[in-house]
Amino acid sequence: MISKQLTEIYQLLFGSFGPQHWWPGQTRFEIVVGAILTQNTNWANVEKAIANLKSAHLLTPEKLHNIDVSKLAELIRPAGYYNIKAKRLKNFLTWLFNDYAGRLANLENLGTDRFRAELLTVKGIGRETADSILLYAFDREIFVVDAYTARIAARHKLIEPGAGYEQLRELFQANLPQDYRLFNEYHALLVRLGKEFCRPKAGCADCPLEKLPHTLDIEYF
DNA sequence: GACCAGGCACATC
DNA sequence: GATGTGCATGGT
Q1: Measured in angstroms, what separates residue A55's CA from nucleotide C3's C1'?
Q2: Residues A88, A169 within the same domain
Q3: What DSSP letter does each residue of A47-94 carry, written as one string?
Q4: Which bases of chain B are contacted by protein, using any atom under 7 A from a CB?
Q5: What's the confidence (pLDDT) of residue A219?
Q6: What's the whole-model pTM score?
Q7: Is residue A155 part of a domain?
């Protein structure tokens, strides 16, 4: 059974790495901003951008909604793709202010399906970003899929090669206990594993999943 | 200097 | 629906 394999993987990862304390962010808004800034970008660079926003005392929906997009772009420059990401942050804020009075708390009333669908209408918020916001900022039972998740699932033959985002999300989401704390920790552990053992040029020596069935010659993407 | 990093939108077939 | 491209910084 898939659920048994997923549970075994989780136990091996947690036993080896321990709790990852995700999401690394002080406030719900900081989590949302981080989710957008980390798109295809190393987290260390995102931290620099967020530090800039904090230093300028701009890390609130009101402040970011009101500052000039070019000023915002300059502040988040270390995160890379800074022009497009500044627009994406603005798109989120425009939606938040137009439809929800600029208050994240007003989003709490949304059912998860509706919430996800609405996030996906914002240009610049795709599936992974939406799901990260839902899980890590709003404690919704949505499993976040990223490049590491896909690599690891492929490497351990949990899913057919070529599976898409929704199939991967379904794999984890439907075969685990419905607990946002578990989804939170599991995804964080997969990223930890991916960074250390399941990336180009990384070896499998001392990988916590070394003894599980796997293949080395997978395509990275 | 090449390669990579917790994606996404858009064009094109 | 699948595939290709632009977007950009900072670490290895």
Answers
A1: 42
A2: no
A3: HHHHHHHHHTT--SHHHHHHS-HHHHHHHTGGGSSHHHHHHHHHHHHH
A4: 3-10
A5: 54
A6: 0.96
A7: yes
Residue A85 belongs to a domain with what CATH number?
1.10.340.30
Peptide bond into A43 cis (omega under 30): no
Residues A33 and A119 in one domain: yes
Residue A140's identity, in one-letter code, is R
Q: What is the pLDDT of residues A137-182, one digit of tens each?
A: 999 999 999 999 999 999 999 998 778 999 999 999 999 999 999 9
Is A39 inside any structural domain? Answer: yes
Q: Give the Å distances, CA to CA, from A168 to A1, A38, A91, A105, A162.
A: 16, 20, 28, 30, 10
Same domain, A34 and A118: yes
Q: Which domain holds residue A88?
A: 28-137
The type of residue at A89 is: L
Structure tokens at A203: 């070896």
Same domain flag for A149 and A132: no
Side-chain half-sphere of A84: how many Cα atoms within 13 Å? Answer: 10
- Residues 106-165 of chain A within 7 A of strand C, judged by CB, are 162, 164
